[in-house]
Amino acid sequence: MKHLGKFSAAAAALLIAAGVGTAAQADRSQWPQSFTVGTASQGGTYFAYGSGWANLVAETLGVSGGGEVTGGPTQNLALVHTGDLAFGMTTMGPAREALEGRSPLAPGIKMDQVCALFPMYQTPFSITALASSGIKSISDIPAGAKIGFGPAGSTSDTYFPAMLETLGVKFDRRNGGWNDLGGQLQDGLLDVIAFAAGIPIPAVSQLEVQAEVNIIEFTADEQKKVMDAFPVADFTIPASTYKSLNADARAVSMWNFAIANCALPADFVYEVTKVVMENNDKMVSIHKAARTTVKENAVKNTFIPWHPGAARWYKENGIDIPDNLIKQ
């Protein structure tokens, strides 16, 4: 385990089983010497949010740590499972596939060393085009349009193409980091970008500074059709999110959770969870999407096993975590 620090499997197991200790009492000799949080491409919400909470934890606990650019949720699950990353961020769709052994990166391997850490935010699926394109609705997207779906294997790339196919859109699929795709849209190399990221999306905010854009919403019928076919919920993008919006925009969304390698010491994970969950004002200053990074949303996780250290913090703070959903 490259980033989990130096602690034996036996010591980690004892710590996880015990699940006791406070920040002052914790035996830091078993803590990792450093940690890394798997995020996604630069220009996306994962990178800004993940790097921010990694730095907050590092500064508060005095442990070296930071964010790392990755391919996004699907890759983060694999890297956290193997221990190449201590922490990561994922959406619930790819998480279920990974736990059931259906990850496209490792078919047949159940990623049972991935544990839940804390709720993050909902990821809206939203579409952006240049105003000059004349594309104002999903039905306006012409056949063969060049659409950027984010990094290969990301939540956006996994689900958005299938969603648009369900809605009858025929397109030429493109991949890349959000910043790169934003530049390609502005240069006329793409017709549309289909984003799945917490709002406001940095790449969209940057685009608005440089060009006039259309934030394209789902119609009620399109929203229902997608919700019937995919593990998503209804969502509204507030008009205040982007200067290009004159009214709230209809969308769909999927929950995101922070994840941890299950072998991390319980008292270390307890302290990490405490830092994030007890400093929401600081989290919101990192990214506005963190408004929903609160303990009450822990219940949005119904299938990822909770890390014992994280579960202990929630139970101490009035959130009921079912015993059968805590990693043994």
From TrEMBL:
Question: Which InterPro entries does the entry mention?
Answer: TRAP_TAXI (IPR011852)
Q: Which Pfam families match?
A: NMT1_3 (PF16868)
Protein name as annotated: TAXI family TRAP transporter solute-binding subunit
| UniProt entry tagged with the keyword Signal | yes
What span is annotated as the signal peptide, if there is one?
Answer: 1-26
Domain of life here? Answer: Bacteria
Q: In which organism is this protein found?
A: Futiania mangrovi
Keywords linked to the UniProt accession = Signal
